[in-house]
Amino acid sequence: MATLPFFEEILYNYELSANQGFSGHWLAKKFRSVYPSALHELIDYNDRYIVKGSSGKGNWTHCPWIAILDRVITETPQKGYYPVFLFRRDMSGFYLSLNQGVTNVMAYHNLNASDILRWRAQDFRQQLGKLPDGFTTAEIQLFGETSTVKNYEHGNICSKFYDANAKISLNELKIDLLEMIEMYDFLVYNDPTSTDQEEDKFTEDAGNLRLHYRIERNQKLIQQVKKVKGYKCEACHFDFLEKYGELGTDFIEAHHLIPISDLEGEKVLLDPKLDFSVLCSNCHRMIHRTENPSDVEALREIINNAANTAPTPLT
């Protein structure tokens, strides 16, 4: 089976390892560090995500997992929602599942946890609409006996299954992961959670700040940014009103310029004029792919250089 080496390693070794002592076991150690690090390298904008894995706490879990957590939504797999690789108990295969943190739901809702998870999963599915090829909303089967494993089955939003006996290419797995991250991004971007305000001052508690992406969804602050900065992209000068007429009125995206490392652990006053730039949708996505997302001038130079070196159209 030609897939990521660590997936092969898990499928081939987990059942045998689960019959051995847990403490200090090499496979348990890899779940905590090596496997999450390897998966982290495959994710674009990987500073935005935390990757965690587990084969159990003190004892082997029935169904080990490796989860990808967006800091905007959660930094722990106990709550929120996130993509997760879930391995069947019998190691007959594994799922790439868009799933939910079940621990907090079980703590708050007890016997109703499974119903809550199913209801939330259905709501997420309605938001996503049509799924990429290969993904399904069918129930997943992990064959575990614990309530946590069963609730992971109930919390599944959509998933794709990989049979241990089938040939799975590395390229296929990378494409599937990219499509899963895109679905996750869509849900995160449309998540109704908003940042806290303090007496109408535009401040963020950087100790609790998960990502500047969350600042960019602070609607009260963003409206002030647009009022101050206008509605023309500061990188490529695209104007939605000129392009789309009335449909593009007052449309632009705000981009937060202060690096998160400069905000850590302190209360910061955000200046709509100095701490933000307004960008069109394309430039906003592209600047997050640069080495320094706070440098709008560098993005402007990239755009100008690309325009100067563009190939001559065929006649």
UniProtKB/TrEMBL annotation:
<dbReference type="InterPro" id="IPR021961">
    <property type="entry name" value="McrB_DNA-bd"/>
</dbReference>
<dbReference type="GO" id="GO:0004519">
    <property type="term" value="F:endonuclease activity"/>
</dbReference>
<feature type="domain" description="HNH">
    <location>
        <begin position="233"/>
        <end position="289"/>
    </location>
</feature>
<dbReference type="Pfam" id="PF01844">
    <property type="entry name" value="HNH"/>
</dbReference>
<dbReference type="Pfam" id="PF12102">
    <property type="entry name" value="MrcB_N"/>
</dbReference>
<protein>
    <submittedName>
        <fullName>DUF3578 domain-containing protein</fullName>
    </submittedName>
</protein>
<dbReference type="GO" id="GO:0008270">
    <property type="term" value="F:zinc ion binding"/>
</dbReference>
<dbReference type="InterPro" id="IPR003615">
    <property type="entry name" value="HNH_nuc"/>
</dbReference>
<feature type="domain" description="Type IV methyl-directed restriction enzyme EcoKMcrB subunit DNA-binding">
    <location>
        <begin position="10"/>
        <end position="187"/>
    </location>
</feature>
<dbReference type="GO" id="GO:0003676">
    <property type="term" value="F:nucleic acid binding"/>
</dbReference>
<dbReference type="InterPro" id="IPR002711">
    <property type="entry name" value="HNH"/>
</dbReference>
